[in-house]
């Protein structure tokens, strides 16, 4: 059992018979009345984010989760197949548990979160940033735009579409943020 004082981002709790990850929390002590904790919780099974308020000191069940390194192997009709980096066991995982399949590349190192009691995979976390080569993009011409912060679409080796600055050309390697598919920087 954990209390609201133990809350931290990424913590997995059992709430209303379901598992939730704490995405964000804030302790609030108003001038009048009792303190409370405002949270954003992500449902593990549906991926839906809800807002909830807990009274300060309330006890919740903390679900034990383990984060294990895996390597992405391939995709087929059974799902996405990953290999445990420590035991070399292969695990098929359905697409709904993977946050961003468009940036998943063969051989990529990922982190699979397991429910420790049932040994079931809960979610797959990609690295924060990945580097891919641009396979196609239209050439950017200086002076085409009225603003200095212009973007154009580019396709990377996995087939994902990313919005990049005008100076990016085919063959360039770019760093991409996996949480929102945004361009970070050009890699040399």
From TrEMBL:
<dbReference type="InterPro" id="IPR008991">
    <property type="entry name" value="Translation_prot_SH3-like_sf"/>
</dbReference>
<dbReference type="Pfam" id="PF01132">
    <property type="entry name" value="EFP"/>
</dbReference>
<keyword id="KW-0648">Protein biosynthesis</keyword>
<dbReference type="InterPro" id="IPR012340">
    <property type="entry name" value="NA-bd_OB-fold"/>
</dbReference>
<protein>
    <recommendedName>
        <fullName>Elongation factor P</fullName>
    </recommendedName>
</protein>
<dbReference type="InterPro" id="IPR013185">
    <property type="entry name" value="Transl_elong_KOW-like"/>
</dbReference>
<comment type="pathway">
    <text>Protein biosynthesis; polypeptide chain elongation.</text>
</comment>
<keyword id="KW-0963">Cytoplasm</keyword>
<keyword id="KW-0251">Elongation factor</keyword>
<comment type="function">
    <text>Involved in peptide bond synthesis. Stimulates efficient translation and peptide-bond synthesis on native or reconstituted 70S ribosomes in vitro. Probably functions indirectly by altering the affinity of the ribosome for aminoacyl-tRNA, thus increasing their reactivity as acceptors for peptidyl transferase.</text>
</comment>
<dbReference type="InterPro" id="IPR013852">
    <property type="entry name" value="Transl_elong_P/YeiP_CS"/>
</dbReference>
<dbReference type="InterPro" id="IPR015365">
    <property type="entry name" value="Elong-fact-P_C"/>
</dbReference>
<dbReference type="InterPro" id="IPR001059">
    <property type="entry name" value="Transl_elong_P/YeiP_cen"/>
</dbReference>
<dbReference type="InterPro" id="IPR011768">
    <property type="entry name" value="Transl_elongation_fac_P"/>
</dbReference>
<dbReference type="InterPro" id="IPR020599">
    <property type="entry name" value="Transl_elong_fac_P/YeiP"/>
</dbReference>
<comment type="similarity">
    <text>Belongs to the elongation factor P family.</text>
</comment>
<dbReference type="GO" id="GO:0003746">
    <property type="term" value="F:translation elongation factor activity"/>
</dbReference>
<dbReference type="Pfam" id="PF09285">
    <property type="entry name" value="Elong-fact-P_C"/>
</dbReference>
<dbReference type="InterPro" id="IPR014722">
    <property type="entry name" value="Rib_uL2_dom2"/>
</dbReference>
<dbReference type="Pfam" id="PF08207">
    <property type="entry name" value="EFP_N"/>
</dbReference>
<feature type="domain" description="Elongation factor P C-terminal">
    <location>
        <begin position="130"/>
        <end position="186"/>
    </location>
</feature>
<feature type="domain" description="Translation elongation factor P/YeiP central">
    <location>
        <begin position="67"/>
        <end position="122"/>
    </location>
</feature>
